[in-house]
Specification:
This protein has 391 residues and is of the alpha/beta class. It contains 13 helices and 15 strands. The protein has two domains: 2-203 and 372-390, Rossmann fold (3-Layer(aba) Sandwich), CATH 3.40.50; 219-370, Glycogen Phosphorylase B (Rossmann fold, 3-Layer(aba) Sandwich). The strands form three sheets. The protein has a seven-stranded parallel sheet, with helices on both faces. A six-stranded parallel sheet has the order 12-11-10-13-14-15, sandwiched between helices. It is elongated and about 70 Å long.
Length: 391
C-alpha cells in the first residue's frame, strides 16, 4: 500500500509521539509499503531509509516549550495536499496528530474516499496552563485555525488541557478509524464519547534484541526521558535518596543501588549517575547494562516509547502509575504508591531481593513481541481494508 504519514508536531523535537511516528514508518517500509512523510521541520532530521518526503513551508512562530508549529487549515495548505493526491495518490492517510495538518489532510482526502486513520498520542496531555478558556473562545479558535466544529465538554480541570483534549475528541469523530497505542487511553476516550477506538501497540526499535540480565550485586536502575515536570524526575531522585539512606540504616549499604539518568543535561546531584543526551543506540546499551528501567510519570503517559524500548532489551519497568502497570502487566513492578516515599520502599525491597526482577524480565521479552513491526504493519493494512469496505 501507499501511505501518507503526517504529524503536526515538530519532527526535530524528540518526544514520544515523534519517536512512535518514525518507528511506525520504519515498520511499514520494512514490510513492503511505500510511505510519504509530511511534517514540520522534516528537512532538519534524518528520515527513515526508503521514505519519501514532501517538505512544508517553515513556521517561524512556535508554541513553547515544545516548539509546536501552528498550521492553519486554509487554501494554501489544501492546495499542498491536493497536489500530493495527484503526485502520490495514497491508499490511506495516517495522522499522528490532530491539528492543522491533520484536519486539512482529512478534509482533502476524505473527499476523495481515501481512508483516514488517526493515531492518538496525547489524550492525557498536560501543559500546566490552568487559565480558564471560555467555551465560546475555544470553539471560535477551533473553527478559525482548524476548520473543526468541536463541542467543548469538561474533560480535565486545566483550561488549556481541556481545550486540547476536546480537539483530540473532535478529530476522533472526523477520522474514519481511531487507533490508541494503549488500552487505558482507548477506554478514557470511549468514556469521553469516542465511539470506536482500536488498540494497536507502537513499534519497538527493529534492531533491538533481548539481552541477558546483568549480574546481581549492585541494583542498577535507568531513568530515561525528557526533563519535563510531567515526567517527575524529581520523584525518582528523591526516592533514590530515601532508599539509599534506608539501605545504609539496614546495613545493606546505599552503594548497592544506582540510578542512571538519561535524557537531559547533567545536574550537580550525586544521588544519580548522569549520562546526558545520548543517541538511541547508546540509550539501549545503558538500558541493557541495568536491571530495570524506571518511569515516574503519573496519570500522564499513554504508551511511553521508553517502556517499549526497555521491553525490547528484556528489561522490566518500575512504574509509579497504576494504569501503566495494568497495561504492561507481569513485565512491570508497581511502586507502593506514586510518591517518592512509596517508590523508595519499592527500591529498597528490590535491592534486597533482586531475584524479584527475574520473572518480570522474562515477561518483558514476551510482551515486546506484541510491538513487532510486522504485526503493526499488518494491522494497519487490515484497518485500511475495513474502512475501504465501509466506503
Amino acid at each position: 500500500m501507499r501511505y501518507l504519514a503526517l504529524c503536526d508536531y515538530a519532527l526535530d523535537y524528540t518526544a514520544g509521539a515523534q519517536t512512535a511516528f518514525f518507528r511506525s514508518i520504519e515498520a511499514l517500509i520494512a514490510n513492503g509499503h511505500e510511505v510519504l512523510i509530511v511534517g514540520s521541520d522534516s528537512d532538519r532530521v534524518q528520515m527513515p531509509s526508503g521514505a519519501q518526503v514532501r517538505h512544508l513551508h517553515r513556521k517561524r512562530f512556535r508554541v513553547p516549550p515544545i516548539h509546536f508549529p501552528i498550521y492553519v487549515n486554509n487554501k494554501r495548505l489544501r492546495r499542498f495536499f491536493e497536489q500530493i493526491a495527484v503526485d502520490f495518490n495514497p491508499d490511506a492517510i495516517i495522522c499522528h496528530s490532530e491539528y492543522g495538518l491533520a484536519v486539512t489532510a482529512c478534509d482533502v482526502f476524505q473527499a476523495r474516499k481515501v481512508p483516514v486513520l488517526f493515531v492518538v498520542h496525547s489524550f492525557f496531555i498536560t501543559v500546566g496552563a490552568p487559565l480558564p478558556w471560555p467555551k465560546w473562545l475555544a470553539r471560535v479558535l477551533y473553527r478559525l485555525l482548524l476548520g473543526l466544529d468541536a463541542k467543548v465538554v469538561r474533560l480535565s480541570r486545566g483550561g488549556l488541557d481541556n481545550a486540547l483534549q476536546n480537539v483530540t475528541l473532535a478529530f476522533s469523530h472526523r477520522a474514519d478509524l481511531v487507533i490508541s497505542p494503549s488500552q487505558h487511553q482507548a477506554q478514557s476516550m470511549h468514556n469521553a464519547g469516542a465511539s470506536d477506538v482500536r488498540v494497536l501497540s507502537n513499534v519497538t526499535e527493529v534492531a533491538a534484541k533481548p539481552r541477558p540480565m546483568p549480574p546481581q550485586g549492585v541494583l542498577k536502575i535507568a531513568w530515561v526521558g525528557r526533563f519535563a515536570p510531567e515526567k517527575r524526575l524529581d520523584v525518582a531522585l528523591d526516592a533514590t535518596r530515601l532508599a539509599k539512606a534506608e539501605l545504609d540504616r539496614l546495613g545493606v549499604g546505599g552503594d548497592k543501588l544506582e540510578l542512571h539518568v538519561l535524557g537531559g543535561e547533567a545536574k550537580p546531584d550525586p544521588v544519580a549517575i548522569w549520562h546526558g543526551k545520548l543517541p538511541a543506540s547508546e540509550v539501549g546499551e545503558v538500558m541493557a547494562a541495568c536491571h530495570a528501567v524506571m518511569m515516574t510519570s503519573y496519570n500522564f503517559d499513554n504508551q511511553p516509547m521508553v517502556i517499549l524500548e526497555a521491553l525490547a532489551q528484556g528489561r522490566p519497568v518500575v512504574l509509579s502509575d497504576p494504569k501503566l502497570a495494568r497495561e504492561f502487566g507481569a513485565a512491570s513492578v508497581l511502586a507502593d504508591d506514586h510518591t517518592a516515599e512509596g517508590l523508595a520502599r519499592t527500591l529498597v525491597r528490590l535491592t534486597q531481593h533482586q531475584d524479584a526482577l527475574l520473572e518480570p524480565a522474562r515477561a518483558a521479552v514476551e510482551r515486546a513481541k506484541l510491538s513487532s513491526g510486522f504485526a503493526h504493519s499488518q494491522r494497519i493494512a487490515e484497518f485500511v481494508a475495513e474502512v475501504q469496505e465501509r466506503c
